[in-house]
Design a protein that fits this description.
This protein is 39% helix and 14% strand. By secondary structure, it is of the alpha/beta class. The strands form two sheets. Strands 7-6-5-8-9 form a five-stranded parallel beta sheet, sandwiched between helices. Helix 2 crosses helix 11, helix 5 crosses helix 6 and helix 5 crosses helix 11. Bound molecules: phosphoric acid mono(formamide)ester. The site of phosphoric acid mono(formamide)ester has 9 residues, from helix 2.
Length: 308
């Protein structure tokens, strides 16, 4: 088994293509493990992991916790809302207090971009970024690419369009880095106001016409409209957004070919995709969630092997 080139997983930006392939090969093994009747391995019995979440989460939090338990790690969970952060304790003090309980690894979600990078410079534990503001969400991008590889055999050479709120999306940025690293062709599609000016410098093309984008792609990754990060109105109304950038079954069925539909969740049903698209045979949304556990087991296992 090889070794990752990084001590922390702070963003896809810091990975090499060989790191991604190592994570996928390790995830293949763990996916087989979690489909056995005994879904647990004793690999990390001597490792303690703290999941610290300063923002809400369903999929990422539960998936990390399950991945850690499947690897037999000891796990502690911390939610900022019920903690002394509310009394003014700083991030470094909070984490150093947690680390003094002999914690080896920290999985952190934080609303501020760069929070994981900041932490990695001030504490000795291995840090996994579980989403930092509008910056990166590396394990989401890994599980997304892994799901494309599983469905289509490979990521290299595939046409992938990321649709919607690119401006506020850590999922979009991490996916762009991951897909480009693996040799996919990437377009972004959405209202001009939600496409950052620098996006073409990342090697992606802009297509503002959804039908054209869908007819070009093999895979459409439909992003959630992140109203909680909007400080101004980026489009007139949600109804008009859906008319131009939402995918419904009629549109899907009228395309030149059968494409794969992805969504990182949580879905605004009826906004980015209608229910008959989200629940259709072309959708791999729940496969993404299932693959999240194997991918996170692989990332934790590989990073833990660098601690020992
Ligand atoms: N995809 C994702 O990050 O979902 P959660 O916010 O529920 O973790």
């Amino acid at each position: 088994m090889g070794e990752l080139g990084v001590k922390h997983l702070l963003g896809i930006k810091y990975l090499k293509e060989s790191d991604v392939q190592l994570i996928f090969e390790t995830a293949d093994h763990f996916k087989e493990v979690i489909n056995r009747s005994i879904k647990k391995v004793p690999s990390l019995r001597d490792i303690t992991i703290a999941n610290i979440f300063f923002e809400n989460s369903t999929r990422t939090k539960l998936s990390f916790e399950l991945a850690e338990k499947r690897l037999s790690a000891d796990v502690i969970n911390f939610s900022a809302g019920q903690s002394s952060v509310r009394k003014g304790e700083t991030l470094i003090d909070t984490v150093n207090n947690i680390l003094s309980m002999k914690v080896d690894m920290v999985v952190m979600r934080h609303p501020n971009p760069g929070a994981g990078i900041f932490l990695s410079k001030h504490v000795s534990a291995s840090i996994i970024n579980a989403g930092d503001g509008a910056h990166e969400h590396p394990t989401q991008a890994l599980l997304d690419s892994y799901s494309i590889r599983e469905k289509l055999g490979d990521v290299a050479g595939k046409n992938v369009v990321i649709v919607g709120d690119i401006l506020h999306s850590r999922v979009a940025l991490s996916n762009i880095f991951a897909l480009k690293l693996q040799g996919a062709n990437v377009k972004v599609c959405g209202p001009r106001t939600l496409l950052p000016k620098y996006v073409e410098s990342l090697g992606v093309e802009i297509e503002t016409n959804l039908r054209k984008a869908l007819n070009w792609c093999d895979v459409a990754n439909m992003l959630r409209i992140q109203n909680e990060r909007f400080d101004i109105g980026y489009f007139p109304t949600t109804r008009e957004y859906t008319q131009q950038y939402g995918v419904n079954k009629k549109l899907l069925d009228s395309l030149d070919k059968e494409i794969v539909i992805m969504h990182p969740g949580p879905i605004n049903r009826g906004v980015e995709v209608t229910s008959d698209v989200a629940d259709s045979k072309q959708s791999i949304i729940l496969n993404q969630v299932e693959n999240g556990v194997a991918i996170r087991m692989a990332v934790i296992y590989l990073l833990a092997s660098k601690i020992k």
